[in-house]
Amino acid sequence: MSGLRERKKVQTRKALADAALRLFLERGYDAVSVKEVAEAADVSVPTLFAHFPEGKESLVFDMDSDREAAVVAAVRDRAPGTTVLEGLRTAFLAFPRPVENGEMAQFRRLIDGTPTLASYFRKMWQRHEGALAGAIAADIGRSPDDVAVIALAHFVFGALEVARRGDDPEGDLTRVFELLENGWGTILKP
């Protein structure tokens, strides 16, 4: 019974996120109400908030908690003898890559062009960095407030952003992780 219940929850959550994204892309984030999203997904507004208690913005970033958990697991559950950076690089290269099509470009414009979503994205990104810093700190026996741990988490997430922009995201991500592992001095020598 719980298997069916869980599948229904996943289906409802996906239906809500899909309906929200479709409506937001068609009409703009601010022009769409949560009531309209709920109606498009054929659920009630309380059901919408049961699945997305963080609010309307979280409908756009429905994979937020899954991604954060995967990043933490990349550190915590990596293969024995694998460094933290190797584990993260392997995990990031295994993450599904969004297809760079018109809808993805629209999605990025939606986020960049909507102050509420841009702010939510930055806060989400910072939370993910904090979770990663906590996982790294726990793994190496340091405080999550250690500046080196915080900086490493920041640079790791920065690597994702930089690699996403290029023509060869996997190659670029690998190159940035090589720089993180071997030091920036390797490219700064004359």
Describe the structure.
The structure is a single chain. With 190 residues, the chain is an all-alpha fold. It has 2 domains: 1-54, Arc Repressor Mutant, subunit A; 63-188, Orthogonal Bundle (Tetracycline Repressor, domain 2). It contains 10 helices and no strands. The chain has helices spanning 2-27, 34-40, 45-51, 64-76, 84-94, 102-113, 115-140, 147-165, 169-182, 185-188. The chain is globular. The N and C termini lie far apart (65 Å). The mean pLDDT is 88.
Q: Indicate the radius of gyration in whole angstroms.
A: 19 Å
Query: Could you estimate the helical fraction of the residues in percent?
Result: over 70%
User: Which runs of at least 5 residues are low in confidence (pLDDT < 50)?
Assistant: none
The string of secondary-structure elements, in order, is: HHHHHHHHHH
N-to-C span: 65 Å
> Which CATH architecture of the largest domain would you pick?
Orthogonal Bundle
Averaged pLDDT: 88
Number of domains: 2
Per DSSP E runs of 2 or more residues, the count of β-strands stands at 0
Query: Can you tell me the overall shape?
Result: globular
Give the number of helices. 10
Question: Strand pairing plus helix content: what structural class?
Answer: mainly alpha
Q: Beta-sheet strand percentage?
A: under 5%
Largest sheet: none
Going by CATH, the homologous superfamily of the largest domain would be: Tetracycline Repressor, domain 2
Write the layout of secondary structure elements.
Layout lengths: L1 H26 L6 H7 L4 H7 L12 H13 L7 H11 L7 H12 L1 H26 L6 H19 L3 H14 L2 H4 L2
Helix pairs in contact: 1-2, 4-5, 4-7, 5-9, 6-7, 7-8, 8-9
